[in-house]
User: Fold this.
Amino acid sequence: MKEGKVLLKYYAFTVPNVSILAGSILGVLFVLGVKVELALGLFALLYGIMLLIIHVIVYPQFRRELLYRLGLLGSTLLTGIGAFLLLKALRGFF
Assistant:
C-alpha cells in the first residue's frame, strides 16, 4: 500500500508539468492557425509520449501497482489516438 502512495505523489508532481507543456504546445498550434484535427493529433501524440516516458522511468519500482497499469494503459491509448488523428489529418495533405 505504501508503494501506491509514493506513486500517487510522484504523479502529482510530474503529470501537471507535462500537462502544462503539452497544453502550451496545443495553444501555440491554435495560434498559428493549424487545422484542428492536425493540432489535436499532435497534442495527443506528444502528450501520450511524454506520459509514456514518465511510466518508463518508474517501471522497475511500480510495475505491479494497479495505478501504474491504469496510467500506462491510458497513456498508451492517448498515444494511439494521437497517431490515428495525426495520420488522418495528414492523409488530406498527400
Notes: Residues 2-91 form one domain. The first helix runs from residue 2 to 31.
